[in-house]
Amino acid sequence: MNTFRIHGDNIVECERIADIIVSTLNPDDDNIRTFLISPSTLTIEMKCTFSGNPIHWRLELLPGFNKNTKKRWEENIFDALKEAGSFFDETPDAIISHIRDGEEQIIVGIEFCSALQAGNQAWQRSARAFSTGRTGCPYLYIVDFVKYELDNTTRQRKSLRFPNAAVPYSYVNYSKTTGNFVAQLYMKSEEFDKTRDDHIADFDESDFGDDILGIYIVKLMLGMDISQEKETILKKNMNVVQFLAAHLDSNINFTPDEWEDIYSLKHDDIVDYAVKKNRFNFHKTISAKSHHGVSADVIKLVDELSIGLASRNLPFGIISADKREEFANRLSQLYPMANEDIINNLACNDKHLIVAIFKGFKPRGDDNRPDRGLLPLVIMLSSTDVDVLTYLYGPLIEANLNLLDSDPIKLADKNGLWRSILALSNYLILDVPVRATKKYDAERVYDTSKIKDFYTARGTEQQLKNKPVFSSIPMTFGEDDVDTAIHYLFGHILGKYCFEGLCNPPGGDWSGFSVLDGTMENRWLSLPRVSDDIKGKRPDHILELFGVFDKPLLLSIESKERSIGLEEDVGTKLVTYIKKLMDFVPSAKRHVKPSIGEWSWGDEQINFNNFETISAAAYLKDYAEPSDEVFKKNCEILFVMDPIMPDKKIGWTIEIIPSTDRASIVKQFIIDKYNASGDDQFFIH
């Protein structure tokens, strides 16, 4: 039997990959079983064949990573990536590894995205792709396409927005120039409907990756030749680039033909190609209130001397080698305090210069998370020997400015955006307001080439190495484990009586929740934050139970490590959120009986009164307050969770505490159905 592990941000990410593997292999029901090997570790064993290869696999699902100060597992799976050159804290949603001879080998990193891919959101994950890819570990970025932005008040779809074609092309280019497989793969989303939106009428559905993804993963796990699958995925990636390019203004963006020209190797280098074409300049739009110091003059200078890299509207462009001296000299007039040696280096005309201009930091000085991916995007898109100048005009915290001057490596190590800037820039210009007891302005010009060399030299002499295997049992238990237990109990063991409408553990994306109403699954997507329009509290779990009452029951659960973390009146808020959301027409629907059908747009409201609703809280026994105290938060049911770890029996003890008669009925229903299931890994009372 071969053992593989799926490490993920949470149980949902782990199981999404497991489902892809299982659906690709399609073992008979009597040749697959699911069980726990620790209270936190869901495990799937199966036997089948694939392309003539006999398979006897064990998939161990390990939710939750060692991140920041959290020491969840004995070892950090990301250590192998860091030693091989991954220097960003941005890491994949999930990693598949192979356990063999006491060692663990990482074989692929995967990122899922159900968010709208537009604006700077499109490159938010580029740091993960760049950092993982440079280790030699294959990396796939899975995009649900399409996603609509919704009106905050009406939840009506706004006009469809696409990412710039340069973003998916950067993955293709990175694979091509480094030889390390990094790709985007688009998957058909619930809202994809050509008959409803002319913007996607010409999208070729054969470019979706739903089928090839599972085949690629399984063949990779088997050690089979995957060269054809890689080529197919990159071609699909490239076809998406051309589709997106066709929907952009060709006067200020590369056309589909130009992208094909670059991809077909007629021109090996996209930067040289852009310089030779010189069809449009680079222009950064900054609102009047955001301009600072002489930033407006810098923008005019860039407008005059720059060339757009793939698009005028991206926040970076090219100063060609022959214009660098003029650019540097005129910058020195705007910033006369700049060191002469730095200006002279900036004026060197031996290579092109890419200039990235962005705010970087929010009004309070904290970093704008999507911008962490901007410079990795620049590097992935160019992947050539160019210099990079970063120009920041957003507010800085004084302590960070002082650290930048005194110990920039320490600053980079404590903040993800600063690490991105300093690790990938040769030069840095600040023209910023500084947040301090007494606010002031700062103008600085830095040569950061040595810092860039410090980071980019990491891992260049090492390959991705195997690490000693560590225990599948976490060192500590927390909210991740509560969620895993709830998910396993209701989604697997009680699956005949329960439809899991939402499971959103820590690190989840609030992408949607569903209810079954008759023969239809109705789904609300892009779950809104709590606001004046949508009140309440977004649940962590919504479980639809059948057979408890005359109407289906929506059991809404808030999970925590400690009961004290439950907010006031959380029980009422959980139900309120569902009711308010169901006041709107679902985003999508599909038939589930007698068989599962295709998704289509929702067209009628679902009556909230067709369902019973009960709110609940789930938390660990070790940190539990007296139940009377917890009931003050207005939940009807409490799930008090205690992991079981004796030598032979592994699972959970769950005490269900009801506060109403109908909650008592739910408790007895769960106990009865569990006792009849034949499972022995839970003790429910």
**Structural class per helix/strand content?**
alpha/beta
Mean pLDDT: 94
Number of strands: 27
Radius of gyration: 27 Å
Helices, by number, come to: 20
* Overall helicity: 25-40%
* Low-pLDDT regions: none
Distance between the termini: 36 Å
What spatial form do the alpha-carbon principal axes imply? globular
Largest sheet: 9 strands, mixed
Keyphrases for this structure?
685 residues, alpha/beta, nine-stranded mixed sheet, globular
Structure description:
The model has no long low-confidence stretch (mean pLDDT 94). Strand 18 and strand 19 form a beta hairpin. It is built from 20 helices and 27 strands. With 685 residues, it is an alpha/beta fold. The two termini are 36 Å apart.
Short description:
This protein is an alpha/beta fold and 685 residues long. Helices cover 31% and strands 25% of the residues.
